[in-house]
Design goal:
This protein has 195 residues and is mainly α. 68% of the residues lie in helices and 0% in strands. It is built from 8 helices and no strands.
């Protein structure tokens, strides 16, 4: 199997099979990023997914071999998500949710949900579906800059440093966005769970 560096060199020379091999290494990650960031806009997510690799193909000659290809592709996809999101919707107001959340249920260890049967019956399937929908809705309500950071860090598994490179932010800014994004999601999901 050829190394990524060899595939990049061959792709720059016009070898479409080498570029296809590069695409196959990253297509699932870019697909997931597009669908998580463009939540509620599946057609936009599909366009971002396709445009990311089209843009990469067109601009591959400008890619520096000493850079990380995955980070570069995430950057392209993030920019495309950002542009489409701004075109589709007005930028939401960013809530400040720095207040702490206190949960009284920590005092009684037996107060949490009790699972009698680990198989997924109709109730459990319904609950999982409702939770998945609540998470997607909350993620869709998250301001786009926070959403990108949350998706890159918590869903795609990038480090803070890698996310900072993709987003062209400082590591401190990434950590701040991640913290605020998580607080936003926790606040939204707390309301769903408690209702």
């Amino acid at each position: 199997m050829e190394s990524e560096a060899e595939l990049i060199i061959k792709s720059k020379q016009g070898n479409s099979e080498a570029f296809s091999s590069l695409v196959s290494r990253y297509e699932d990650k870019i697909f997931n990023l597009a669908h998580k960031v463009c939540v509620g806009m599946p057609a936009e997510a599909e366009d971002v997914y396709q445009e990311t690799f089209l843009t990469a193909f067109k601009k591959l000659s400008h890619f520096r071999e000493d850079s990380n290809l995955g980070t570069w592709l995430y950057r392209i996809a993030s920019n495309l998500c950002w542009m489409r999101f701004r075109k589709k919707r007005g930028e939401p107001v960013v809530p400040l949710l720095d207040q702490s959340h206190h949960h009284d249920d920590d005092s009684d260890p037996g107060s949490g949900p009790i699972f009698r049967d680990w198989s997924d019956g109709p109730e459990e399937l319904s609950r999982k579906k409702a939770l998945r929908e609540a998470i997607e809705t909350a993620l869709g309500d998250l301001p786009i800059d926070y959403r990108l950071v949350v998706v890159l860090r918590d869903i795609q598994g990038l480090s803070s440093e890698e996310t900072a490179k993709v987003m062209k932010l400082s590591v401190a800014a990434v950590k701040s966005c991640l913290h605020r994004g998580r607080l936003f999601l926790r606040d939204r999901l707390d309301k769903v769970v408690s209702s």
